[in-house]
Amino acid sequence: AVRVEAVRGLGALADPWPVPRLLDCLERDTDAGLRAEARRALEIVSGGRTFKEDVAAWRAWWAASAVVAVK
Fold first, then answer.
1. How many CB atoms lie within 10 A of CB 21?
2. pLDDT digits over 17-51, tens only?
3. What helix, strand, coil percent values describe the chain, rounded to 5?
4. Which pTM was predicted?
């Protein structure tokens, strides 16, 4: 429950810095609730994109967006 709340909080920040960790969580974590929160956080940070749990699509979005986020 603590990890789910932590991921929920990262989404509420709407900041791109946690995206790599959120992607790892979405891809590797065994807790379905935690993966769902990671997906919701990514949807918030991405401005509403909805790739569901398609990690490859999320990683492609991040690869294209990370350059902009760093500037």
1. 13
2. 999 999 999 999 999 999 999 999 999 999 999 99
3. 75, 0, 25
4. 0.88
